[in-house]
Design goal:
Chains A, B: Pathway: Amino-acid biosynthesis; L-histidine biosynthesis; L-histidine from 5-phospho-alpha-D-ribose 1-diphosphate: step 3/9; Amino-acid biosynthesis; L-histidine biosynthesis; L-histidine from 5-phospho-alpha-D-ribose 1-diphosphate: step 2/9. Chains A, B: Pfam families: PRA-CH. 2 copies of one chain form a homodimer. Chain A is mostly beta strands and 152 residues long. Chain A has a domain of 86 residues: Phosphoribosyl-AMP cyclohydrolase (Ubiquitin-like (UB roll)), CATH 3.10.20.810. Chain A has 2 helices and 8 strands, in the order αββαββββββ. In chain A, the strands form 3 sheets. Chain A has a 4-stranded mixed β-sheet, with helices on one face. In chain A, strands 3-4 form a two-stranded antiparallel sheet. In chain A, a hairpin with a 5-residue loop joins strand 1 and strand 2. The relative contact order of chain A is 0.17. At the A-B interface, strand 1, strand 2, strand 5, strand 7 and strand 8 of A face strand 1, strand 2, strand 5, strand 7 and strand 8 of B.
């Protein structure tokens, strides 16, 4: 396993323009991860990574996260089969967020509701009211895949 | 101005499958916003919104955020001219994140470093070392646009 990441430099220009990966984990030890499909850039999910999850993702090429609800390391798709093979990892300017470009195995569904993306509802205005409209249907039946505490 | 958003329902299925926008603001009163270009889905930035920022974004069609570093409401592009016109807003399954599809005005640059996207560095392996490689150059000169506390 690679050694721990170095601490973020105090110098802003080094942090933003440098070639050293120095993730700025927050007070809970997490960075935010945006996950998109390598093929069409569709945003699939938003998740969080602690240091171990980020290291494992870099080392294995499979996306790992930290589950805040289950409070444990989470190898995406371990239960559902919808694993994520990582084609590219990017980091943002101040290094507190990463972007993963992935290919999804299994049913090509990333959301625990069975849909391709977690962002399946659009905000619409109907008769002056703000409502949500569902734009996509489940690709698998979550009830037949997960027990209650397993949705991944 | 629209009235405040309703509280999130206790029922998980209503939260995930319902048509009511009930954003789940965190302990700091924020949801995370992923911002992509409407044209090609390129991820431009990650930001945060408090209730006011989300309401203003829906009402005006221009992206507003909450700046955690400056601790104030932030109309994106007000200083730089790189404003974001919102074509679509989506919400994720558990309603603690939103996805904005936008068109960027001005220099078509979203990052305060002058680049199109904040995610301009790629994680690469060179001689067994993990490094960052810069993949895009600034589209404007931040030094000529911002004072130190204004980068937006």
């Amino acid at each position: 396993m690679t050694s721990s990441f170095k601490s973020a430099p105090a110098d802003k220009s080094e942090l933003e323009e440098g070639s050293e990966l120095t993730p700025r984990f927050d007070a809970n030890g997490l960075v935010t991860a945006v996950v998109v499909d390598s093929g069409d850039n569709e945003v699939l999910m938003l998740a969080h990574m602690n240091e171990e999850a980020l290291r494992l993702t870099i080392e294995t090429g499979l996306a790992h996260y930290w589950s805040r609800s289950r409070n444990k390391l989470w190898k995406k798709g371990e239960t559902s089969g919808n694993m994520q093979t990582v084609d590219e990892i990017r980091v943002d300017c101040d290094q507190d967020a990463v972007l993963l470009k992935v290919r999804v195995s299994g049913a090509d569904a990333t959301c625990h509701t069975g849909r391709r993306s977690c962002f399946y509802r659009k905000v619409v205005e109907t008769d002056g009211q703000t409502r949500l409209e569902i734009g996509s249907e489940p690709l698998f039946d979550p009830g037949s895949v997960y027990t209650d505490d397993q949705a991944n």
